[in-house]
Amino acid sequence: MNRQSNLYTVIYASVLVLAVGILLSVVYQGLRPRQLENIDNDTKRQILAAALIFPSEGQSVADLYAEHIKGAYIVNSNGQRVDDNLDPFKVKVATQVKLPADQRKLPVFECETSSGLKYVIPVYGAGLWGPIWGYVSFNEGSATIYGAYFGHEGETPGLGAEIEKPAFSSQFEGKSVLAPDGQFTSVAVVKAGHELASGDFVHAVSGGTITSQGVQNMLYNSLEPYKAFFDNIKSSNPDNTSKS
Fold this sequence. Notes:
The chain is of the alpha+beta class. The protein contains six helices and seven strands; from the N terminus they run ααβαββββαββαα. The strands form two sheets. Strands 1-2-3-4-5 form a five-stranded antiparallel beta sheet. A two-stranded parallel sheet has the order 6-7.
């Protein structure tokens, strides 16, 4: 075949593209299990962070997760466990928060800590530039927050992105999502100088008003369907019924 012809150029380019495509596909398939493992480990790290458990240098996140997470299950909006074949770890919270409360699958992770058993619940919402998410842990037998972790996809560095910093998330510790009368209230996120007269609140990120409002909306929308679950764990722990 004449190497100077257009036909040769087309055939050569086609073969080259096909070969590169096959090579990339093989590499992708070979790396995919490791990519999925890394994604799972990052999710496990976030769940543990909400329970204020952090891996030390050289410590495996997977091993730490297996050590502390003693159970995981799905509940419905009535606070009852759902006999579902779906792994709570695999529930797409981003999809669930768009459904009516009585149709959602609500994951719960039970985490054993040095301060006792904690219930870790996922949350998901919208920030200024994209999705925001996180996990919130609650003390056993109450609706009082033990710890929180928040993440984001593209919030502005130094502004909205500060929600992932401990300076923001640590404010939620000790706050309750239920009022003394048992009504669900969540936790408000307010600007400094605009503190509420009643109800639990934290201070918004300076310069990140929309992202902070996104966190507030995310918490309310994600946690409100768990109210019956909070009521159930309170009633099953009489020593804690006086606490919100």
